[in-house]
């Protein structure tokens, strides 16, 4: 274990299938919570109500009869804050530590007896001594709620990072960290790149050996890798040079054209990822779109607009501030192609987009002339 005094007391939730009731989970999620055992005892966040019993049992085991002196509330989202009232009742002398916005939100969720007497309000740069350990507080508003704060323990060079550096998946399942952390970041925090950049600047002056997020594994090695990824993601720069082809098809003709284009682009030496928007969660497509430097949007026309799976993808990209990419558009339509115009109306609102012109139009099924246009697109992109 990397610390004698800081103990993990979180829990895995293997049964949750939708994070925030919208993002599909293949392997559930972990709710992370920690306790620091010093002259004073501090609990770093509670967890979701779904795993309360397991969390309370683990906490009591680590306390071994001791009382809790402080509850540090990093983030008020219910998957981390659901047991605040429970802990206040179990340990009536416990102080609740948060910033001014934290306590506004606590009152939104709970009616805690005697909260005014329990409050310990902190602001940027404040410290709290537990004895051998000092807690230093750094505000991180909109990463990804306004009350979020991070806590640094200089004696052990540990950062409690709230939702930052978290990922989907439970702790007992080994998977690629970046894949699920990327999907988590862009769908949960992606809109707030500037605020993440501000938080990273605050952290840049700290010597950090361990990052303790509220979801996913504790990070103890190669921290530069994770910090660099967060810098890339939050500055909306591509992570990899490559092309994502995202297509929405009705009867398969747009799919055929998409796979033809994939082969053409690969023949130029470019890396290509292809996704059928009808068949993958939009959260997966969002993560992949931000991963690559180029995006090809291919869709059937529908109801004088664009196929719904594509429109949802475009809407979500807009919400997440998609920018700094090269984008091409291919539309399909049997009698009145309309997808291109609709797609373009979204793309033109994105920042720093190099839009490949012209929009390619296929009528029902790609023909020789269409194949030539796709070949030219492959070389251009």
Q: Any idea what the radius of gyration is?
A: 24 Å
Backbone structural class: alpha/beta
Mean model confidence by pLDDT: 97
Unreliable stretches, pLDDT < 50, 5 or more residues? none
Helix content: 25-40%
| Percent of residues in β-strands | 25-35%
Distance between the termini: 49 Å
Per DSSP, the total helix count is 13
How many strand elements? 22
Q: In one word, what is the shape?
A: elongated
The profile of the biggest β sheet is: 7 strands, mixed
Give a verbal description of the structure.
With 381 residues, this protein is of the alpha/beta class. The protein has 13 helices and 22 strands. The strands form five sheets. Strands 16, 17, 18, 19, 20, 21 and 22 form a seven-stranded mixed β-sheet that branches. Strands 1-6-7-8-9-10 form a six-stranded mixed β-sheet. A hairpin with a 4-residue loop joins strand 11 and strand 12. The termini are far apart. The model has no long low-confidence stretch (mean pLDDT 97).
How would you briefly describe this protein structure?
By secondary structure, this protein is of the alpha/beta class. The chain has helices at 52-63, 78-81, 84-90, 100-109, 115-118, 177-189, 193-203, 223-234, 253-267, 282-291, 308-319, 339-347, 368-380, and strands spanning 6-8, 11-13, 18-19, 23-24, 29-31, 34-37, 41-44, 70-72, 95-98, 119-121, 127-129, 134-139, 149-153, 158-160, 210-212, 240-248, 272-276, 292-302, 305-306, 323-332, 351-355, 360-362.
């Amino acid at each position: 274990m990397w610390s004698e005094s800081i103990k993990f007391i979180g829990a895995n939730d293997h049964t949750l299938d939708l994070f925030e009731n919208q993002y599909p989970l293949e392997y559930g999620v972990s709710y992370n919570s920690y306790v620091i055992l010093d002259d004073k005892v501090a609990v770093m966040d509670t967890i979701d109500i779904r795993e309360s019993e397991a969390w309370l049992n683990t906490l009591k085991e680590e306390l071994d009869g001791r009382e809790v002196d402080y509850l540090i509330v990093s983030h008020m989202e219910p998957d981390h804050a659901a047991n605040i009232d429970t802990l206040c009742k179990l340990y009536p002398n416990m102080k609740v530590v948060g910033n001014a916005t934290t306590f506004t939100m606590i009152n939104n969720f709970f009616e805690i007896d005697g909260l005014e007497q329990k409050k310990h309000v902190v602001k940027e740069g404040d410290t709290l001594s537990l004895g051998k350990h000092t807690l230093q507080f750094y505000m991180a508003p909109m990463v990804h709620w306004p009350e979020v704060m991070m806590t640094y323990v200089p004696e052990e060079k540990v950062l409690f990072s709230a939702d930052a550096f978290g990922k989907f998946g439970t702790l007992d399942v080994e998977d690629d960290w970046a894949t699920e952390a990327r999907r988590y970041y862009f769908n949960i925090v992606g809109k707030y790149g500037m605020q993440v950049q501000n938080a990273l600047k605050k952290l840049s002056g700290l010597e950090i050996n361990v990052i303790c997020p509220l979801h996913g594994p504790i990070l103890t090695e190669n921290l530069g890798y994770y910090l660099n990824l967060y810098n890339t993601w939050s500055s909306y720069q591509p992570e990899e040079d490559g092309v994502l082809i995202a297509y929405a098809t009705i009867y398969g003709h747009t799919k055929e054209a998409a796979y033809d284009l994939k082969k053409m682009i690969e023949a130029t030496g470019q890396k290509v990822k292809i996704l059928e928007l009808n068949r993958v969660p939009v959260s997966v497509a969002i993560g992949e779109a931000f991963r690559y430097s180029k995006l090809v949007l291919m869709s059937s026309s529908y109801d004088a607009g664009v196929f719904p799976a594509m429109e949802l993808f475009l809407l979500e990209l807009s919400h997440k501030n998609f920018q700094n990419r090269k984008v091409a558009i291919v539309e399909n339509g049997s009698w009145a192609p309309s997808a291109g115009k609709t797609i373009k109306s979204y793309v033109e609102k994105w920042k720093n987009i190099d839009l490949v012109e012209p929009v390619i139009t296929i009528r029902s099924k790609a023909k020789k002339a269409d194949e030539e246009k796709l070949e030219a697109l492959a070389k251009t992109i």
